[in-house]
Amino acid sequence: MIIRLAYKFRLEPKSKDRQLMAQFAGCCRLVWNKALALQKELLTEGKSCMSYNKLAGALKGWKQEDNLLFFKECHSQPLQQTLMNLDRAIKEAFNKTSPKQFPRFKKKGHRDSFRYPQGFKIDEANRRVYLPKIGWIRYRKSQPITGTPKNITVSKRGDYWYVSIQTEREIPDPLSGATSIVGGDLGIARFLTLSTGEYFKPLNSFKRLEKKLARLQRTLARRVKGSQNWKKIKHKISRLHIRIANTRADYLHKLSHHLSKNHAVVVLEDLKVANMSSSAKGTVEEPGRNVKAKSGLNKAILDQGWHEFKRQLNYKLEWLGGMLVLVAPKNTSRCCPECGYTSGENRKTQSSFVCVECGYKENADFVGALNVLRAGHARIACGDIDLIGGLAQEPAQMTAPSA
Fold this sequence. Notes:
By secondary structure, this protein is an alpha+beta fold.
């Protein structure tokens, strides 16, 4: 079995290195935006998008333009990788089975990054990495690197630059030490309720700091854009967003690690988060109803990180020889696990389930977990099993779990 891990470390660049990395990230952003504008223009004219090879040919022409000569100062590999990423994103957007959102233009200072597929060097003894056309840069080594390095991604988050080293290594096919199968119901009042009766409370990292974030944003609105005071508040807001994201990621990693260690098979609902959190605002002709309540629900759903949780749980189970099974969420909270009667009247409140047919009473989330487990057993018995497509391995930009 081949597994891919990413080790993410904080860089300690000098001022000239910071300038070069910012320049490289800016060049990649400009290449992305120019190529995306070209592709959108072709689509508007009713033509097909350009392939990567044609975009790479266009890149050579851009480097010769008088106002884009600075492209030559950037290493060619990050620019080519940017075009590859765009080509893949467009193909995923037109995927008929599971289409993703069409790529958007990138903004300055938002997810700045660039990648080297080759040419880089790693000196673990001296805790430094070599980036072509930039040089050696020290990094804060928090754990040893195992496996063969395949590529390096340099990214900026807040005030700091990070390097993510993706490695690849082959291990024997794992056998899970656990033998149990468990079903889980994802929710808001309870983040996860298991068919064993165990449940985990939601972290709500955004909700905890929402008022502080709102105060800072109101302060930012009163500042003159571009002034020093405006930059200070902007910096505080950025750090607060990073804190929220890190807190959520830490919680999800710990919970997914706990489940993957203690269960061989985990069954969850295949929730479509994008559909569940869509806006209810409507249009001028047909305005939506209960817009404020739906907005609050959308915010609570997105604060949980269900998709990221399933992604983490999927690759951790696979690495340990386990399996994640996804089932359709239809009627999982309306079907009685005792008599099988299905009706919306069984769940009149958010937390209580009372079967109108046999009188069975239980927590609604626990009933959902039981029904999810039953559906998982049916899928396994029929041999109709598939993992989350394309999410079996940890991508390069994520830090490998230390646990």
